[in-house]
Specification:
Largest sheet of chain A: 7 strands, mixed
Oligomer: homodimer
Radius of gyration of chain A: 24 Å
Strand content of chain A: 5-15%
Structural class of chain A: alpha+beta
Number of strands of chain A: 11
Order of helices and strands of chain A: HHHEEHHHHEEEEEEEEEHHHHHHHHHHH
């Protein structure tokens, strides 16, 4: 039996207390935002959570090109759109509610915590809408966006082909211009989430393909909009376009999300953006998708934590090492054991840290969209970190939850093994976490001579400067400063070595991303601790909340952040021991 | 498509070169042992590997109390016994071949690498045989062991009940003595691997239960032999005993291994060993099983490594960061990338290190069984370390293999996602890895005033003393000595703090076990490096093998062992941040 209660108190803390109410205005009062979050939590727990295990067990069905989602998904999807949850982040001009990113981000976290497979359907549509908004012609936007924002039609991203995923320069799908200004698209795509389904009356594929005169490699890729049904004169789904599903994949998890092999066979499409500039348009979608995947990791991490806490309170086994805590019961609940608490606190520290960091990035994205270049730099820098870190940690949470359950965690009925299977994809899609690490060291670090990097390093340095002698938390800040020092040294090492030898940067990439991520979470934790230290002594109903923040912060600093030291050590080891072994010797 | 080639060269290295041919004698010449390993590898690759994916997909079937194993399992099981693989480790007096533990251990590794689910069936039988050998009466041994050794009959371990796993003191199954000297056993057991199956004509359950006059807790538990069919006058399977399977579990992995809910309903049983001393008898089985599970982790780790290497050589994607390595191909194989090599080398360093450590422990077990008390101490100390470390690392290997495959790793057809699902159980059963850690710090460290500990610390100290100024590898030995120093400090910390407060030991347990394990692997790696450094310069066909050992040793020292520093730091943080948070605040 899976369980989920939206962590509303912590969400409010992050939104209003930690990152300041930057979105509070006449339109979005804090009270309104809180109400929206509360309602979203209710919807996710009541409508989506009950379909999570059943959808996993049933999976999607494929027959004669038709995909059927598991029982209940269609009804839930209708309820989801009726309540407007698919439209919360879209611009009002296309029927959206224009909520700030920070809030849609938190809603997504709940959605993914309750039902990651379900979340894929609206999630992909939102990504497609974003790319269309930015790069589509006015006509395409007017014709497609209102129906996609309302959820009547859905969207997909068609990038991967059997022989190319990370290296899109190899892609082969062709687009041939027609006299009427449309294109005929031909090729095979794989791993297309929601490429076919029975939830919507039309599916709008955004497809990467090559024009006949395209240069080789990634500089010859264009983006096309290819609807399943061509819109008729009224803008409704009309003639069937030959964009068909050949099969769906059997996979480890997210079984209720249809992962389709798609064939485009002279399908009619429209160019989105400029010829040969498809990668730029696709990156709009991809960057949003990467932050979305980060949120998926966090969502499952939180669900896993809640499941583990519930079991640790409930399962009676053995006695506390310091003497029976519940002598009237046949045994103590396992939450009395330090090693079980270690697992629970690790999850808690990860989740609350990632939530705080995620909202910081979401706020920056908001500012970036209003023209703040510094904020845009910050988002670019933090996107690969959040994607890889949140998904690695979300998966670790899923594993810790199973470990808390012991052998029972391995059994389907308890519902936690699904978290392992579902979370595992988040480390792989939208660029594997190794690819995120290369993006960080290869593109984002050197970008603009390190300017992006300063968007993170400067606020951290300032914070340390101001708070290192804090009366209560000075020691904690100093501990954090040591980890930040390790990150600075690692950055210098990579900047120097990587300049002359990109393999040196590549050799350090994964460890560096983890070090960066742990320091970023550490920054969130010291900042949260400072707020909690002020408010905990005030007493009242929230005192326990702030006290728990302080304890968890201390746990993070003492038990997680010390990894920074070892990471610096391995980063500085350099590439030699990685590159020395001849290929044949593996 | 899964693939597996037994790592025979490395097995020979560990068996003969690293740990010296302690088993070489007139009966078991090195050549004979090598031939046996080669034949075992062939059998596993040819007969068991092809059933691994199909068995996973089909799973076990349950209908009306009958369990059907997947297609091909019955035939494979017959071939397995016909070739004598189930009997390799059993004593000759019961029809076994009496091979040394080190060799049966390596055979088990191959078995688990090719088909963990299949391996469960003979594996459980072997554990049951061992307990019977040590604690059964001569009559029980004569009646049951020959048929169990030959594989005609199988064995199980019936410990867990729905409300108790780790805490067996809570168990409720009852045994009522009968006038004829037998007992009537009544109770429900869960998670009984191979509790019911269609491979053998009889199943011999070893069941923990309480006699009517039993003291409460673990001191009131006795062990009983309860056959599915009572042997008739000829010793063949006769009347059906009411020991029945009520259901099988749906679970994350090892789907071809039937995990049964068993009901004993006045089933006839025989006492094994002394009344109320069942835990001691069970621990014989459990300790052997823990080392067996360690081997399972290694087996899957090796299979995962091989799968990842094959894919990394085959998959063309992107170009080497130092310029195209295969300009004639559309892209380079991903094995050129440092981050991919990091994953492959991590797996390789884990697997070869665990193989070396596993054989060391197996050799000590051999000596212990010949009356060497020091060796027995060593085995007791290393058993929880090997169980938790090998399975944690095996699971990490499975995950790294999937990560190497990228999105393709998530798809069933590639066969690597199964390794994640199968490996996951090894961290849970036979005592979760957290329970192993508690066993290490709570029982094994303080045992005999630290005498057991010295069985590991002394040889390591001596080695460092002798080799720290080694002309070629002195620096490596010094690096290892630093990690060993961290382990010594951590041990002192736990010994001191844990003496007055067992929760302090509990708080450190998991990190301490990992630190211990990494140092133990490090010891194997420096020792292997020393041998390789002598032999690599000799040239010849093995030069590449020794050179690869040196490179991998260096990788382990530079990239894995530095974790020791952070672990010491977190161990020394103590229990406070774990125990402070009130239960209600989680």
């Amino acid at each position: 039996m899976q369980t989920y209660t939206a962590p509303l108190r912590d969400m409010r803390f992050v939104l209003h207390e930690l990152h300041g109410g930057i979105h509070d205005n006449a339109e979005f009062t804090p009270e309104l935002l809180d109400t929206i979050l509360e309602e979203a939590g209710k919807f996710c727990s009541e409508v989506l959570l009950p379909l999570n295990a059943s959808g996993d067990i049933e999976g999607c069905h494929f027959e004669n090109g038709v995909v059927r989602t598991p029982a209940g998904f269609k009804e839930a999807y209708e309820a989801f759109n009726e309540a407007g949850w698919g439209a919360v982040g879209a611009p009002p001009e296309f029927g959206g509610q224009g909520l700030p990113h920070a809030v849609t981000h938190l809603i997504e976290e709940m959605l993914c915590g309750c039902n990651l497979s379900f979340g894929m359907y609206p999630g992909l549509t939102q990504g497609a809408c974003r790319a269309l908004e930015k790069h589509g012609s006015e006509e395409l936007k007017a014709l497609y966006l209102p129906k996609m924002v309302s959820g009547e039609w859905s969207g997909t991203m068609c990038l991967t082909e059997p022989h190319c995923g990370t290296d899109l320069g190899l892609l082969r799908t062709k687009a041939v211009p027609q006299q009427d200004g449309t294109y005929k698209i031909t090729g095979s795509k794989i791993f297309i989430s929601a490429g076919e389904q029975d939830l919507t009356s039309n599916i709008i594929h955004l497809v990467l393909a090559r024009l006949p005169d395209a240069p080789a490699g990634v500089k010859g890729i264009s983006l096309f909009l290819v609807p399943k049904f061509l819109p008729d004169a009224n803008g409704d789904a009309g003639v069937r376009n030959p964009a068909t599903c050949a099969a769906i994949e059997h996979k480890l998890g997210i079984k209720a999300s249809a992962t389709c092999q798609m064939n485009f066979d002279d399908a009619t499409g429209w160019l989105v953006g400029q010829p040969h500039k498809g990668m730029a348009a696709m990156f709009v979608m991809m960057n949003a998708a990467r932050l979305g995947v980060a949120t998926q990791g966090l969502g499952i991490g939180e669900a896993a934590y809640q499941a583990a806490v519930a079991y640790a309170r409930d399962r009676l086994q053995g006695r506390s090492l310091s003497g029976a805590k519940y002598p009237e019961k046949p045994a103590d609940p396992i939450i009395v054991h330090p090693d079980v608490r270690r697992m629970l606190l690790t999850m808690r520290a990860y989740n609350e840290g990632c939530r705080a960091l995620g909202v910081w990035v979401a706020n920056a994205l908001e500012e970036a969209e209003h023209g703040n270049a510094e904020a845009a730099d910050f988002v670019a820098l933090l996107t690969p970190v959040a994607k890889a870190l949140f998904t690695d940690l979300g998966y670790e949470c899923a594993n810790l939850a199973v470990q808390t359950y012991g052998g029972h965690g391995f059994i389907r009925d308890h519902g936690v093994e699904q978290y392992i299977r579902d979370a595992r994809i988040t480390m792989l899609y939208e660029g594997t976490n190794g690819v995120q690490a290369l993006d960080l060291v290869g593109r984002k670090l050197p970008a603009n001579f390190g300017r992006s990097l300063r968007r993170f390093f400067h606020p951290v340095s300032e914070f340390i400067e101001v708070n290192q002698n804090h009366p209560h938390l000075g020691k904690m800040v100093q501990g954090f400063a040591r980890a930040f020092g390790a990150l600075q040294l690692a950055t210098g090492f990579i900047a120097e070595k990587g300049m002359t030898d990109p393999e040196e940067a590549g050799a350090a990439a994964t460890d560096y991303l983890r070090l960066f991520g742990l320091v970023a979470l550490g920054f969130m934790w010291v900042r949260m601790a400072l707020i909690a230290a002020e408010k905990a002594p005030l007493g009242g109903p929230d005192a326990a909340f702030y006290q728990a923040k302080l304890t968890t912060a201390r746990f993070y600093m003492e038990r997680i952040l010390p990894q920074a030291g070892s990471l610096l050590f391995t980063i500085k080891a350099g590439k030699a021991s990685l590159m020395e072994l001849p290929e044949a010797a593996f």
